[in-house]
Amino acid sequence: MEKSGSVDSLGSRQSSSRQPSVDSLSSSSTSRSDRSSQAKPASAMSSDSASTNELSPELRQSKLPAKLLRGLNSNEPQLLPKETVQDTAKDVTYICPFIGALRGTLTVTNYRLFFKCMDRDQSLALDIPLGVVSRVEKIGGTSSRGEVSYGVVCKDMRNLQFAHRQPDDTLKKSIFEVLMKYAYPISNSLAFFAYDYEQIFPENGWKVFDALAESKRQGLPNESWRISKVNDHYELCDSYPSTLVVPVTIPDEDLRRIAAFRAKGRIPVLSWIHPETQATVVRCSQPMVGVNSKRCKEDEKLLQAIMDANAQSHKLFIFDARPSVNATANKMKGGGYESEDAYQNAELVFLDIHNIHVMRESLRKLKEVVYPNIEESHWLSNLESTHWLEHIKVILAGALRIADKVESGKTSVVVHCSDGWDRTAQLTSLAMLMLDSHYRTIRGFEVLVEKEWVSFGHRFQMRIGHGDKNHTDADRSPVFLQFIDCVWQMIRQFPTAFEFNEYFLITILDHLYSCLFGTFMCNSEQQRLKEELPKKTLSLWSYINSQLEEFTNPFYVNYSSHVLFPVVSMRHLELWVGYYIRWNPRMRPQEPVHQRYKELLAKRSELQKRVEELRREVANKAASLTSERAGSPTRSITPVQTFV
Amino acid sequence: GNGEIVVNEANFVRKCIAAESSQDDLWGKLICTNFKISFITHNSIPQQKFQYVHHLLGEHDIPLACVDQVVTVNDAKGKQKVLGSNQKLKFNPTELILYCKDFRIVRFRFDEAGPESAKKVCLAIAHYSQPADPQLLFGFEFAQSRQYGSSGNIIERVNGVDPGGGCQTPLFDRPSDWDREIKRTGASEWRVCSINEGYTVSPSLPEYFVVPASMADLDLKQYACSYTGQRIPMWCWNHSNGSSLVRMSSICDVQQQRKLDQRVSSAITKSHPQRSEVLTSDLDKTLPSIQEVQAALIKLRQSCVIEPFEESEEKWLSSMENSRWTEYVRAFLRHAVEVVYMLEGKRVSVSLQEEEDRDLCCVVASLVQLMLDPHCRSLVGFQALVQKEWVMAGHRFLDRCNHLKKNDKEEAPLFLLFLDCVWQLMNQYPAAFEFTETYLTVLSDSMWIPVFSTFLFNCPQQRAEYSREFVHSKSIPLGNEQALKFPPVWDWSQQFTLKDQTLFNNPLYVGKGATCVQNGTVKTFRRTKQRNYSSTVRGVPSALKNGLRGDVDTLSRRNSLVARLRPDFSQAREVTETPCERFTREWFSRPTDLQGLLLPQLLPTHVTLWRLYFLRWVPEASISQGGAITAFHKLSLLADEIESLQNQLRQYNTSGGVGGTPASTPNPAHPEHGRMYFKCTPSPNRAASTPEYLSSSFPFSPVGNLCRRSILGTPLTKFLNGAKIWLSTETLANETV
């Protein structure tokens, strides 16, 4: 049976069900929940913000049982179920880039690093999931006073520095060696904490996405498109999902031949179909044309079938995410792009998105510019020099062109890059977000991520490097982060079009690294099934869907069938300060209007109640008057008190 | 019948709508009057989904005072000329391009118009948009016809509703307005002085203003001669802790400086209940000059509207930085925060000093009050603030707007800069202001409609003088009236319908605790004490919010630890903080009381481009069905619903009071009386959707207001970009040397 919060298991463990991770609730219990939730990082990693201190004692009491309360002022973190302390060191100095040196206690568990400042006036605490740790290294030698300094580089845009006295007993391991052991389970042949973590959530997030149900929602299969079982056992393509939607006219044998022609066997399959025009978004990897311009007639037939399935247009657009130079260079390695000779009526467009290495370098520069402090006098030009926003712009611009072709041009599109699991995922998911309002709901967005990223084999394990000490791995890249950043840009431009808020996006990113949930572990659907992740770990969506209010945008207006066309221009793109610069204490989040909106909602319901009461009173009065006039002086109706 | 006359006109003129093609262009008649440039057409603008109605201006109209530059082009001959007043034009123009002060660029083509009439209308526009004499400004004709015209529409607002607060806005042209302000702020040791009646002491000060109670009129008159422009120190505002804000010009008589400084300071000190000292803040030394501010705006305009959109994308961020506009916005805000710190944190009085006390002082004095006094964040309070610190204090609107195009060096967008600062505060605290960014934008645009007393003159004395001269030269019988009456811009019904004025109302505004005078005692805003109390109760360590900032103060007090550690950890940053920075940081660590002190976040990440103002005409930058307005719309519906529920309650209550007669089902409030522009319609499914006409430019429309693309790549581009911009930067370069 799957590890989930089914009703009976919920009943049997009632006591623990509503007080899961302390931190998971801390964010919901502040009185100014909106500001704090924006200010604070995701709940499961309450981080530097010393979240416990944000709570007023009264509120804390109301939400948390006494046992946990005692822990609040202690030096130890509040542990998750199955979380165990591995080592504790007293008299560790945290060299905070904003305050200076702080002395305290450092604790390492199998899930997190926890530092509690022991200075009387400082109630600072650092609470960081080990999954965030990218690199731990000793800085310099032992100082004159026998202290050793360690730097901890994090994946979430911050660096930490600690110093402590080396244990006198040379056989005893330093706490930082313990840290390195648990921060890199892969390198140390340990299991991720996600496998131990036990928590009961009212909903099982693994069930949020069902490929067949999502196809059905899109009206598939239909007369032009069928659901193929050819990849049921991941034999055709080990990085693709088992359920594939392909044109009815292409039999499975053809698909096998096409798989040999497309990089990594990632054949063109349907991602999305327009409910009215039947124009489709199709994704795949590059064709293996090579220097000799190899052709594959089944592949050509498939693309023709995709075009034919849409009666509205006699053209097909192939969007190659890469710069044309890169696409051409790929021919040397056997890859390449579709020639317009081979693919009649198809038009090829290059979208100029750079590769994972360029993006990684851009993020590295961005971190330099924003952490720990920004240079006020040259902020904008420094930001410009990182090219981060420029990359965001190019990605959004590509998605916009795709959405526009599908919506306004009523034309089907095929999207690919080299392997079709990075830039392609960015483009198709963003285009679908623009085209289909369902994906702008909380559950719809979860489906979108599960579908276009998780099931279609974005290599999360490799791009993030979960639990792997090899921090210089060239396969790491912030591809998914860029996607979430693009979504945030869209939220900014359309503040009422999305059901979720900024905090939802930050939470997703925090758990992208935390390794608390199985959602972003492994590289493909096949691997996930092999590792039995849905049985052995929890889904992030279980956590999120059990406290939807936290993640809901109060301004949400269902645009229903409205297509969003964001303005992709530097005039409107902004650096996501609430994410990238959130560790800087000077970055106070702007006063959110959400709180005020909620106040107004409360006021409305209060007024509605009063109006309703008065209406009833008046009605009663009228009834009593008529009955009096009718001459029935019974005491059945008590006179109503006058309005005060 | 408002004094407007047609000067010249041309038929068969084409107004360009889209930059890329001429297919949407409109045909019509181009008219130049003594007030505006009109384009009369029977076609409707394509794609235009929304247009708000302006009483004085049609949808294609441009007031002459809004025209910055008149450029005529003959593309066949490859000729072009920037037209000045009274100039000759040696070629027949095929095209007229109007560069406007509100950032619009409007183009007309004369392909089908008679060459002579095209030339004439261009010359007329050039001539009339650069009047040689202030009396040629339309406001004079307008005021005259308003006052003595047949319609007598001056009485219009007497019985009308006044949602814009026009009538309630004190103009500070009479002692009673100042008296009320003294009472409101509890400035008991200050008095209204009338030594400047008839402007006999200082030409640029108002007739009535406020001075320390201990200063005698005779002394004041004597001191006046030693100050630049005879501007003796003038009171602005009092803090509830007794410290006051004063502004003054510099002392020109060096020999008197010491003595005067001493006397004035001691008088201000005497007016402080705790006899606190007075700190002087020299604005000239710390803030950019007006020329620098003007240069910044020109660069910003260059990036926002002149340069081709796509080409300027790549360097957009650095071009924003290079313009230095937001840097200056931050500088003014920062300076105001420092003054706030002195008044609130140090509890001392502050005197703002500037050479002439007519530019930088206006910005800083009003920003300080906006931050400290929630009353200034109400609509009427804000208008009173502008009236007090700008109009009456003698900001040279006539020169700074350059209405007479006499001296480009005097032109400077100080008021726009101030509005931008207000917008930054508003952007950071969306529920703290009663008015909206649409209001700020419209207020700024009103500068270019030369009929309001607010923006027409350099000072009250000039208004009196010019109107006297006008009346004299036209030999108008004055009757009981002593002078021409120009409407203040605050009389918004001059420009907009009541319905459109509701676009000024912020649905989020939290206004309950606003200051008011009750029975003569001043009820001021609750502040520091209460907040300290509440934060103690909550047990929140003051400096521990949003991150790992601890209390630096305590850290440095116990600096033994830091000192002990520093030799080992050279990386540990030494945190040095000015008292003002600490004041700000501690304020930020507490929850915000929107009815108390508001401090802006000053980091460049938080002070951003005011997009509605600067990008509203740029078609490429307009987000269709998006932008902050969509959230505003949703909020408005909710606020409207609350309002109508409150009305229902009121109806029940009043009918309930009448001896128990049951009221009929209460009608929902009359839609025209609501505060909100967007109404909550009864049908539930319609209410939820976002109107199609909303865009990030709303209520403005970029359609036909920014035509620049067709000249792209031609030699003309360089020329058009150059003209004035080139001139100004050149001048500036000389000055900075």
Automatic annotation (TrEMBL), chain A:
PROSITE patterns: PPASE_MYOTUBULARIN, TYR_PHOSPHATASE_1, TYR_PHOSPHATASE_2. Its EC number is 3.1.3.95. It is found in: Cytoplasm; Early endosome membrane. SMART domains: GRAM, PTPc_motif. It is a peripheral membrane protein. Residues 205-580 form the Myotubularin phosphatase domain. InterPro entries: GRAM, Myotubularin, Myotubularin-like_Pase_dom, PH-like_dom_sf, Prot-tyrosine_phosphatase-like, Tyr_Pase_AS, Tyr_Pase_cat, Tyr_Pase_dom. Substrate binds at residues 330-333, 355-356, 417-423. GO terms for cellular component: early endosome membrane. Regulates the level of these phosphoinositides critical for various biological processes including autophagy initiation and autophagosome maturation. This is Phosphatidylinositol-3,5-bisphosphate 3-phosphatase MTMR2. It comes from Denticeps clupeoides. The lineage of its organism: Eukaryota, Metazoa, Chordata, Craniata, Vertebrata.
TrEMBL record, chain B:
This is Myotubularin phosphatase domain-containing protein. Gene3D superfamilies: Pleckstrin-homology domain (PH domain)/Phosphotyrosine-binding domain (PTB). Residues 656-675 are annotated as: Disordered. GO terms for cellular component: cytoplasm; membrane. One of its GO terms (biological process) is phosphatidylinositol dephosphorylation. PANTHER family: MYOTUBULARIN-RELATED, MYOTUBULARIN-RELATED PROTEIN 10. The lineage of its organism: Eukaryota, Metazoa, Chordata, Craniata, Vertebrata. InterPro entries: MTMR12-like_C, Myotubularin, Myotubularin-like_Pase_dom, PH-like_dom_sf, Prot-tyrosine_phosphatase-like. Residues 172-614 form the Myotubularin phosphatase domain. It comes from Denticeps clupeoides (denticle herring). Belongs to the protein-tyrosine phosphatase family. Non-receptor class myotubularin subfamily. Pfam families: 3-PAP, Myotub-related.
